[in-house]
Design goal:
- The protein is mostly beta strands and 302 residues long.
- It is 7% helix and 57% strand.
- The protein has a 22-stranded mixed β-sheet that branches.
- It is elongated and about 70 Å long.
Amino acid sequence: MTSLRTLFLGAALALAIVPAWAATPINETRPLDARGRIEIENIKGLIEVRAWDRPEVRIQGSLGEGVEKLEIDGDRSRLAVRVRYPKRSGWNWGQDRSEPTELRLMVPRLASLHVESVAADVDIEGVASRELHVDAVSGDVRVAAAPGEADAQTVSGDLHLTLNTSDVNAQTVSGDLTLRGRLDGEVHAETVSGNLDVRVLQNRLREVNASSVSGDIHIQTALAADAQLAVETVSGDVRLVLPRDVSATVRGESFSGDLRAPGANIQRPKHGPGASFEHRYGSGSADVRLETFSGDATLQLD
């Protein structure tokens, strides 16, 4: 009986230990020029990127059980890091039992960065590359960086962007999008059902294009003298906050939503729905347009 009990306990202990050893540790280093290009792909798990001032890429983390391999290709000018999962097709689709992989990379601060994920969360911090591109499906994306230009897209994940840059293009479908930072150029932001929140408190933007279908939009910014700002929703509400000393001509139009703007005369037709206004603040140099179908639009001077 004692021997049987010992065998049972030993087997149970072995089973308990297996998951801890299932993931394969990753520890690789490859050379990359200071202004080289790095591409990272991972379907599920995590992609974490941090910057340093070395001409090389360090790749750490853990390869999930059942993953085919970690693929590292390229040279000093261009490096690709990809996690290869088992191929799925036909009746096998959705039966992939491989575990998530965690990739944690240190990359040259000025290297161009291209990241692709499906369900992996993306966390990027400290890079100052000429271009930064992130494409995800259901994973959340968090970026705190200073690229020359930034392009971030996700379907159902949220986008949390803190950027020092002059050119931002950000899109979500059902995820929420928040944008902060020192932005002084162009911002293009789109959502379908997610909410959009843009706050630029220390710079003046030259161009803003923001749109949603059913998500709400909140934008707070100062504007350059000849700036163009256009916000459009279908059923989502819009709140635009501009400085009290803004110089802009503001036009608002809605089919069935309410419009509010300080000092503006809201025009409503005698028969049928609709509302519109046009009002000049200061010299009226910037061009601001607010359009909704059934959502409300509010201009606030603060």
